[in-house]
Amino acid sequence: MKLIKHIFNTVKKESPILYAIVLLHFVLAxxxxxxxxxxxxxxxxxxxxxxxxxxxISGGIYILTLGxxxxxxxxSNIKKNIVRNIVSWTLLLEVGIIFYQAVRGVRSxxxxxxxxxxxxxxxxxxxxxxNVLVMILLAFDAARLKLKVAKPIQVAIFLGWVxxxxxxxxxxxxxxxxAHNVGxxxxxxxxxxxxxxxxxxxxxxxxFVALHGIQIIPLxxxxxxxxxxxxxxxxxxxxxxxxxxxxxxxAYVFYQAKQGMPLIKL
Length: 266
What we know:
Elements: H1 2-14, H2 16-38, E1 42-43, E2 46-47, H3 50-69, H4 77-104, H5 115-144, H6 151-177, E3 181-182, E4 201-202, H7 204-211, H8 213-227, H9 232-258
Antiparallel strand pairs: 1-2, 3-4
Helix pairs in contact: 1-2, 1-3, 2-3, 2-4, 3-4, 4-5, 5-6, 6-7, 6-8, 6-9, 7-9, 8-9
C-alpha cells in the first residue's frame, strides 16, 4: 500500500492532467459496474458493459504506470509532458470508443458491420499503433540511458517494455485473424469477467499477461531491492531470470492458444 500511495502521489504532483485521466478511467469503470447490474443486453454472449469495464481498469493502470515511470527517465519536462499527453489522451479516446460501442450495444473490436463501425475500429488501431511507438521509444531509452532507479529496477523496466511490445504484437495477431478465439468463433463459454474461452484457444490470455509485464516485472525488482540483502549484481541477475521466466509463460500461453487449447478447460 505504501508503494501504491507513493505512485499516486508522484503522478498527481508531476502531472495533474494525467492523474485526472487516470481517475476518470476508474470512475467510468464504476459506471460500467452499474451498467452490468441494470442492463441485460449482451454482445457475443456477455453483458455489453464487461468489456469497457475491463478496459477502463486496464487503461487506468497502464496510464498510471507510465505516469510514474516517466518521472524516472532523464527527459526534459517538455519531453515528459509530450509523452504523457500522447499516451493519456490517445488511450482515453481508445477506451472511450469501446465504451461508446457498448452504449450502442454493438461490438467494438473487429466490427465491420457498417462503414461507421469499421472507421471506429480503424481509429482504435491507429491509436494503439501510436502507443506502441511510445513503448518502443521508452524501451530503447531504458536500455541506453541511466534512469533514476537502482540498476535491477531499470533492467526490469526495460524487460517490462519489451514484453508489453510482445503483447501488442499478439494484439496484432488477433486483428490479423479478426477474432480473439482460435478454433471457434468468438463468444461461447468463457471464464467469468475475463471471458477467456474455456472450450478453445484464446489469444487474449497471452495479450493480457504480456501487457501487464510492465507492472509485474518492475514490482518484482522493487521488492527484491527492498527485501533481499545481496549485491546489486545478484539482484540484477535475479530480475533477468524472472523476466525470462515471465516471457516463457507468455510464449506458452500463446502457443497453447494457437493450438486451439483453452487456458482452463471447463
